[in-house]
Specification:
This protein is α+β, with helices and mostly antiparallel strands. The chain contains 3 helices and 6 strands; from the N terminus they run E-E-H-E-E-H-E-E-H. Strand 1 and strand 2 form a beta hairpin. Helix 2 runs antiparallel to helix 3.
């Protein structure tokens, strides 16, 4: 697959290459992040939350101790948009800075 979501014309290849996966049964991408402990995971979530609020694009997420699962989808368009790709890239950068 080329990584391009034909329905929305979004190039997903950069984020798929970075470990994001298309969520089965819906137009969304997801990724699991692991940190040293809860404090590091929560710090990461705080960074992402501040950015998400600033760009008015909010992730679906689930956290247990040092694990954060994130799903991105653009509800306004009913699928994936460049907003998802941009936020996924920011999330990956934020995670890398926590290491």
């Amino acid at each position: 697959s080329s990584g391009i979501n034909a329905e929305y014309g979004v190039d997903l290849k950069p984020v798929l290459d970075a470990g994001w996966a298309v969520t089965e049964g819906r137009d969304a991408i997801k990724k699991e992040f692991l940190f040293r402990d809860f404090n590091e995971a929560f710090g990461f979530m705080s960074r992402v939350a501040l950015r998400a609020d600033k760009v008015d694009h909010h992730p679906e997420w689930f956290n247990v101790y040092n694990r954060v699962d994130i799903t991105l989808s653009t509800h306004d368009c009913g699928g994936l948009s460049t907003r998802d790709v941009d936020l996924a890239k920011f999330i990956d950068e934020a995670a890398a800075k926590m290491k």
